[in-house]
Amino acid sequence: MDNMQEDHQTYIIEMDHKICDKFVSILIEPGYNYSYVNPNLVDKCGFNKEVHAKSWLGQLDTGTKKRAHHWLRSYAFNLNGMPIPMHMNVLPLGSYDMLLGMDWLSLDRTKVDCYDKAIECLDDNG
Questions:
Q1: Is 0.85 surpassed by the pTM of this model?
Q2: Domains of the chain, residue spans
Q3: C or N: which end of the chain has fewer Cβ atoms within 10 Å?
Q4: Any bridge partners for residue 100, and if so which?
Q5: CA nearest neighbour of 98 among 106, 109, 108, 86
Q6: What DSSP element (H or E) covers 15?
Q7: What pLDDT digit, counting tens, does each position of 26-39 carry?
Q8: Fold of 2-120
């Protein structure tokens, strides 16, 4: 992943990454409990989304509230050759294609170095 983060933003990491032969904009944000994917990316890549048993209301940093009706179950996000399965809620994200929150960060014992804008994920073999 190529780090596109500005030095003055200390608690988030922005990246560009290639998914479905398209470069997408990703925000890694430890302040969010869940991970999200923009519906435009879901449609462009032909991902199979599922309907939530019960929709719920999410609020973005802009204060905008959006209702999440769909999600991707066990989407295998490929991070530098390491497939990382995760669940992602489908929600309009403005300028980002994906937002990776604490559910993703804790799933693979991800370590975030906010100072150097770097991430490290561990698989079962370390």
A1: no
A2: 2-120
A3: C
A4: 28
A5: 86
A6: strand 13-19
A7: 888 877 888 999 99
A8: Cathepsin D, subunit A; domain 1 (2.40.70)
